[in-house]
Automatic annotation (TrEMBL):
Protein source organism: Hydrogenibacillus schlegelii
Domain spans labelled Cupin type-2: 34-101
One Pfam family this sequence matches: Cupin_2
Alphabetized InterPro entries for the sequence: Cupin_2, RmlC-like_jellyroll, RmlC_Cupin_sf
Protein's name in the database: Cupin type-2 domain-containing protein
Gene3D superfamilies, A to Z: Jelly Rolls
Highest taxon of source: Bacteria
Length: 106
């Protein structure tokens, strides 16, 4: 039987760290669901050799991309090179969920 629920009901975010779950791994693509509580952060990192797409599902994130700050809201998609330094900050008042799609270049 189908079951409908909120993201926050299906995937709770720990208070002490962001939530990460690999949604799909099918070489050369990996999809990762990430959840951040308000004020949680994923520090700068990169995904060399990949294209990175972030699809905002809930909440609002401040994305720092090689020093440039970009606000990402529900329904927005951000594409970037995985060679860029990337950091995520939940600047909203609710839990934020983003689907990260990593496409490796071959």
């Amino acid at each position: 039987m189908p079951q409908k629920m909120l993201l926050s009901e299906a995937f709770s975010i720990p208070a002490d760290r962001p939530f990460r779950r690999i949604w799909r791994r099918d070489d050369p693509r990996t999809d990762v669901l990430i959840g951040l509580k308000p004020a949680q952060r994923i520090p700068e990192h990169s995904h060399p050799g990949s294209e990175v797409m972030l699809l905002m599902l809930q909440g609002k994130l401040q994305v720092t991309l090689s020093g440039e700050i970009i606000e990402l809201s529900v329904g927005e998609l951000l594409r970037a090179s995985g060679d860029d330094q990337l950091a995520l900050d939940n600047v909203g008042e609710i839990d934020a969920y983003v689907l990260v799609i990593l496409q490796e270049h071959h």
